[in-house]
Amino acid sequence: MTLPPTARLTPFVSADRDRIVATLHAWLRIPSISADPDHAHDVRDSAAFCANLLSDAGLEHVAILETVGAPAVYGDWLHAGPDRPTVVVYGHHDVQPVDPVELWHSAPFEPEERDGECFARGAIDDKGQVLYEVEAVRGLLRLDAGLPVNLKFLVEGEEEVGSPHFETLLQTERERLRCDLIVVSDTGMLAPDLPSTCVAMRGLVAVDVTVRTARGDLHSGLFGGAVPNAARVVAELAAGLHDDEGRVTLPGFYDAVRPLSAAEQASLASIPFDEEAWMAQAGVFGLQGEAGRTTLERVGARPTAEVVGITGGYGGAGIKTIVPATASVKVALRLVPDQDPDAVAKAFEDWVRDRLPAGVTAEISGEGAVAPAVTPVDHPAVGALCRVLERVWGRPPLFTREGGSGPEEALGRVLDAPVLFLGVGLPDDRIHAPNERMVMDQFWRGLVAAGELWPELAALGIPAR
Amino acid sequence: MTLPPTARLTPFVSADRDRIVATLHAWLRIPSISADPDHAHDVRDSAAFCANLLSDAGLEHVAILETVGAPAVYGDWLHAGPDRPTVVVYGHHDVQPVDPVELWHSAPFEPEERDGECFARGAIDDKGQVLYEVEAVRGLLRLDAGLPVNLKFLVEGEEEVGSPHFETLLQTERERLRCDLIVVSDTGMLAPDLPSTCVAMRGLVAVDVTVRTARGDLHSGLFGGAVPNAARVVAELAAGLHDDEGRVTLPGFYDAVRPLSAAEQASLASIPFDEEAWMAQAGVFGLQGEAGRTTLERVGARPTAEVVGITGGYGGAGIKTIVPATASVKVALRLVPDQDPDAVAKAFEDWVRDRLPAGVTAEISGEGAVAPAVTPVDHPAVGALCRVLERVWGRPPLFTREGGSGPEEALGRVLDAPVLFLGVGLPDDRIHAPNERMVMDQFWRGLVAAGELWPELAALGIPAR
C-alpha cells in the first residue's frame, strides 16, 4: 500500500486497519437488496447498522429518516463554527440484486478478501465508499477532537432502485440538510495511476413494459401463425429501440442534448484510452454503439437505451410448444444534460403504444427517473478536490463524465449547492454484476483523501469560493 | 351424453363408467412432465401405470421399452389371425409443463370434473386419448373374448419434447411393431357437431439459441451504449424471424412447400369458420400472420415460426441496471410437406450465425425435429374411419390438417404403413396451456368409436384395401 506518509490519517489507517476491515465485512454481510421486497427487513437492518456506525464514529443527531420506501440514515458534526463550510456527504447503504448467483466465486454476502480485493455485493457500491468517509471522521476526531468543517452524512436506502422517494426526503429535510457543498462518495476513477473526478452523471429513466396478447398461453401448433405472440411483441420493441446507426429511435430523444464544453471535450480527448484493455476489462469481444462516437463518449457523454431484461414464454430446459400470452421487457435509458426524464418517459410510452399490434395491450410502469447532473469544472471546490486527489494518487485528476445515474441532480438542485465527486471505484469493480469487488488499496486511499479534503474545503471560506 | 345405442360398447360405458373415470384420474395425478429432468421419475411412474393398465385390460407381452431418454410402453393382442390386419395404436403418456401454474383454476395434477369436463394436465393430451383406446379393448374382449384385428399399443414417453429417441426406438423395435395400419390417438376434431379427421400434421423443428456477449453482466451506466447486449441480440433474432408481410425470413424456407391438393383445398374451404368465435376461443383480440392466407391456412396448411420463449437479464421486481451478458430465445418452426427438418434446422442455424454481431457467440441446440406427415384421403382405411366417425358423431367428417406436430411421420415411414387419426380433442381444450381439459362426452364417444373401428378395418382385408 502506498499511502502518502505526510497525510494526516495515514497513521490512523495503520493502527485501526483490522477493526475497520471487520466493520466493513459485518456491514457487507447484510443483504440490503432494495429491489427485492423480501429483503426489506435487511435494508432496515443495514440502516440500523449504519446509524450505529455513525454514532460510534462520533457523529451526532444520528437518525433513521423514514420514507415511503426504505429508510435513509442521517448523522452530523456541527461544531466547526459558522465561519466554516457545511458539507453534506452522500452515499447509500442499499445494494443491487445478486443474480445470477451461480456466477459468484464466493457468496455475495460472505465478504472475502483475495489478493488485496474485497469481494461482496455492495463492497464498492456503496458501503465501502460510505465507510471510508465515516472512518475519516473518526480518525480526525481522534487526532484533533474536532473537524475543520461542519459535516452532515446522508446515507440513502433506495439508490439502487432509482431513488423513488429521495427528492421528497430532501424537500422534507431541507432545513436539516442545509449546506454549502455536497460530496458524493459513490463513483470511481479511471485507474489507480490515472485519478479522475466526475463532473457529470447521466440521468436514468427505467421502464417496464408488460404486454398481453391472449388470455393464456396457446398451443403453437394449433394457434401459432395466426395469433399475436407476446414474446415476439417485446422482442420487436427491444429490437426497435435502435436504428442501424445505433441511435435511439424514440422521436425527439436527442433534441435536448447539450454539446460538450470545450474544456470537457479537451479532457475527454486527453484521457489515454486503451480500447483493447477496456474490452478485456469488460469481458467483451466486440464493441457497438452510436455511429460516429468514441467508446468514452458512448459510455459517458451520450444518452443510451439498454434492454436490462426480457422475459416471455418458456425459459426452462428443453422446449414447450406454446405461443406466449404475456412477456415483458425492462429498459434503462441513460440521459445527459439537458434531457428531461419526464419528457423521455412520455416519449417512450408513446413510442411503445404506437408500435403495439392490434389487439395487444401493454402495462407500462416507470421504475425510477433521475435527471442528469453536472458540476462546473472551474468551481474552487473542484480545485480543492483536485489538489487532494493529486496528493493521494500522485498526479492531477482528469475530468470525466460518469455513465451511471444517481440522485445527485436532486441533491444539488434541492439543496442548492455544488456537487463534488470523491470516488475510488475502478472500471473493473463489476458493480451490479457477479463478483463485485473493492480494491482495498483504493479504499484506504479514499479514507486518507477524505481526511485531506475537509481542511482544503475549510480554507475556501463560505460559501466555498 | 349421446352415444349411439346400437354401438357395441355403449353398454360397456354405462356399466364401467365409474371405474374408468377413477383410472383416468389416477393416471392424471402422475406429473409425467418429460421436459423437466426433475420429473423423470414421474415419467417412469406413468410408464409403469400405463403398463399395468394394458395388462389389466387384457393386452399381452406388455413391456417397458427403454430409450436413452424416457421409456415407452408396449402391449399387444395378436390372436385375430393372419387374415386380419395388424394395427399399431399410438399415443403418449408424457405431458407438457404446467407453468404459469398460478393461472390454473384447479391444481394441474389434481384432476377435477366440472360441467362434464375433466381438468388436468394431460387430460386430452394424451392420457385420456390413450385410455379410451385401452378401455375399448377391454370392452370388446369382455363381449367377444377376442378382437377382430391384431392390435399393438405403443405409448411413447417423450412426445412433448419432440420425440428425440422415437425414431431410434422404432428402428430397434421394427419387427415387434410390424403392422398394416397405424391409428394415432392424439389429435382433435373441429367441434362435436363437426367431426373431422386429420390427414396431415405439421412437422416441427425446435431450437434454443443462447448468446453470450460478455464474461458477465455489466453496469448499464458504465458500459451501456458501447458493448453488445445479449437481451438485445436475442430480441433482434426474434424480431427478425418475420418480414413485414408476416413471412418467415429464413432463406429458402418456403421452397419445398407442396401446394394443397384440389380435394384438400375444397375441404378446407368448406369448413365453416367463425373468426370471431375462434378468436374468443383463443382468447385473443387480434389476428396476425402470413399475408394473403386465411386463419385456417395459417394454423394448418402453412409453415410458421413462433418464439416460444425469450429470456435475458433481470426479470424480477423493479429494475436492475445491467447490460445482460447472456440471453436465450427458443423458437418452434412448424413444417408442412415437403419441408425437410434437417434442412430447415441448418437454414435456421446459418441464419442465426449470419446475424450475430461481432464478438458475440451463440450456442444453438436442436430441441427436437419431426418431419411433416400426410395420409392420402382416398385410402380405404380413411373411408372406414370416416364411416365410424359418422356413426358416432352423426355426420361425415371433414378432412383437416393438424397444426401440431408429432412423431407420426416417423411411424408411417419406419413401419411403412398408412397413418389414421382418431382424435376427440376440441380446439378449446387448452392443450399445453393452463386449464387443459377433456370434454368427457368426447372421451366416451372416442371409446365407442375405437370399438367400432376395429371391425371396420377388419373388413378391409390385408393389407387394408
Give the helix proportion of chain A (percent range).
25-40%
Largest interface: A-B, 100 and 102 residues
SSE topology string of chain A = HHEEEEEHEHEEEEHHHHEEEHEEHEHEEH
Span between termini of chain A = 34 Å
| Secondary structure: number of strands of chain A | 18
Number of discrete helical segments of chain A: 12
**Derived structural class of chain A:** alpha+beta
Q: How are the secondary structure elements laid out?
A:
The structure is a homodimer of 465-residue chains.
Chain A: H1 10-28, H2 40-57, E1 60-65, E2 72-77, E3 86-92, E4 112-114, E5 117-119, H3 123-144, E6 150-156, H4 166-172, E7 181-184, E8 196-201, E9 203-212, E10 218-219, H5 230-240, H6 262-270, H7 275-282, H8 295-301, E11 304-313, E12 322-323, E13 326-335, H9 341-355, E14 361-370, E15 373-374, H10 380-393, E16 398-402, H11 408-415, E17 419-421, E18 437-439, H12 440-458
Parallel strand pairs in A: 3-6, 3-7, 7-17, 8-16
Antiparallel strand pairs in A: 1-2, 2-6, 4-5, 5-18, 8-15, 9-13, 9-14, 10-12, 11-13
